[in-house]
Amino acid sequence: MNSKQADAPAPDARRYPRSFEAEGKTVEIDELRAADEAALLAFAQALPAHDLLFTYRDISQPRVIKAWLREAVERRRMPSLVARLDGQVIGCSALIHDDLSWSPHVGELRVVVGPQARGLGLGRQLVQDSFAQALALGLEKLTAQMTTDQRGSISMFESLGFRPEALLAGHVRGRDGAKHDVVVLSHDVAEVAARLTAYGVGA
User: Fold this and answer.
1) Does residue 12 sit within a domain?
2) What angle do CA 198, 2, 12 make, to 5 degrees?
3) What is the DSSP secondary-structure string of 85-145?
């Protein structure tokens, strides 16, 4: 099965864990659980430093992982997914939204895929699942942020209908002290609801 054409159920039918085949490998996607703490931290600490800029906070820090688990698992405020291959975490996603803010209709999507899992279509799978989560939450708009040199990720998001909305100059600073420009991509979730099949989220 081509990972980019893997069957995906409608939002109200999606169940976890679920798996898909890519390049002869079985990848499992599941909701983030408390038991994933050590494996998620090991995944984050093995990421190239530049890849960590996909995330708002440095997830290679144990205290950040603990805070993430509190929001995602204990408080159920941040729908999050992990992807596993042979029992190891190889990717993750988080959907951040704040019902008490002035933007309760907007969600921010963060997706990170480990270097060893690139080319399997995992990023696309995680984005599709996050679309389903956004639809279930009634969100109207999704945004994603990444540095402008992460061209592969930008192309993947654009292939799913995201479009550049803003450029933030020198917005993030890496561990080496270098500043990077960030592009903000956005998508109208309501439009996705009308075209589920085109995005692999519905029948």
Assistant:
1) yes
2) 45
3) ETTEEEEEEEEE--TTSS-TTEEEEEEEE-GGGTTTTHHHHHHHHHHHHHHHHT--EEEEE
Number of folded domains in the chain? Answer: 1
- What does the pLDDT read at residue 199? 52
Mean pLDDT confidence for 186-190: 88
Which whole number is the average pLDDT over 69-95?
Answer: 95
Q: Going by DSSP bridges, is the β-strand pair 141-147/179-188 parallel, antiparallel, or unpaired?
A: antiparallel
Q: Whole domain around residue 115: which residue ranges?
A: 3-198
Q: Is there a domain that residue 203 lies in?
A: no
Average pLDDT, the chain: 87
DSSP 3-state of 174: coil
pLDDT at 32 over 50: yes
So what's the pLDDT on residue 170?
A: 94
CA 124 to chain centre: 9
CATH of the domain at 91: 3.40.630.30
Give the residue from 144, 138, 150 showing the smallest Cα distance to 165. 144
pLDDT bin (cut points 50, 70, 90) of residue 198 is low
Q: Is 97 exposed, middle or buried (0-12, 13-18, 19+ CB in 10 A)?
A: buried
Let me know if residue 102 belongs to a domain.
Answer: yes
